[in-house]
């Protein structure tokens, strides 16, 4: 996988190589055990065709991409590692789900942009490590087409909705916008051409959704500042190239600190869309080496006791695959294997 320049051990004249952890403090054995059980659960619940699904058989594309990301965080790829076969099956399923118009998913799914965005994220991380000529060719085709579809699906305001702008009457909202921005940036990092205008318009959309206090609203039309979307927006803006020196991002980050962590009650004090919130907020916290150890201590203390005997986390209405994939990803961020999550 691609390795950031910041991960070069320049003082020793050494360079990190693929499949080597980028950041490794001594891992808590309880965390390691929980992650192993969670990933084994995902392996057991993968369908023969290569996909995972949420409750009621929903969101197959999104669940497959999120589960695949959790497995990549362990260090496995399509070519090597304990979960290589599982990762290959997931990749092949998503490649097969690519439509002629570039959408990765079902057009009949009224939330298909989530799966499309998460799939761009996952498949772009696979591309750099893919050694199979045929699979690499297919990945390049799918990712190039998926980027074009995202551009086509963008609304006149620069955001995205649950479906493309033309299918959804130009409706847009914050959470789907985040998945597109991060997915597009991941594709660009992997060498897939992405028009700068698409990213710039999306960044402006996020800014236009931000309140004076720094919270990001549900949509440009209003809906109130929401901590989960704000956390996701900070992660997306980081992915898009806006870092701490951006006054706008700093304001959003301050809003997160007041409403998510480290607020007075800690992260447990926030109850709405908890897993979605910390999936993104953990990515933000990981970028700051000064706060990550304390955040990880707090978040793992909340996650670990809730794990079921099966290895899953049975929380929320979306389903066990969703919560398990997200928790496993959070607990593995400091492995440093996945380029988009790296410092």
Automatic annotation (TrEMBL):
Superkingdom, taxonomy of origin: Bacteria
UniProt xrefs under InterPro entries: Terpenoid_cyclase/PrenylTrfase
Protein name, as recorded: Prenyltransferase and squalene oxidase repeat protein
